[in-house]
Task: inverse folding
């Protein structure tokens, strides 16, 4: 779970660098590495925070992917 949290934080950095689609891809890929039972708490909180920071489709796509996995 630590690796996924670090990957989501890295995705936030990619977003800050101006690549929202890349950030969404990184976060979705990181979240997909965890079993469903571990996708709550800190992971969900950080992904939701990143989703709120992503404009338009990348953020929506991340929300959809995190909900479906």
Result:
């Amino acid at each position: 779970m630590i690796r996924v949290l670090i990957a989501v934080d890295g995705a936030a950095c990619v977003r800050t660098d101006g690549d929202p689609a890349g950030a969404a891809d990184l976060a979705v890929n990181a979240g997909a590495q965890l079993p469903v039972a571990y996708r709550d708490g800190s992971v969900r909180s950080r992904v939701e925070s990143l989703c709120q920071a992503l404009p338009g489709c990348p953020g929506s796509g991340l929300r959809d992917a995190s909900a479906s996995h």
Q: What stands out?
A: The chain has four helices and no strands. The mean pLDDT is 79.
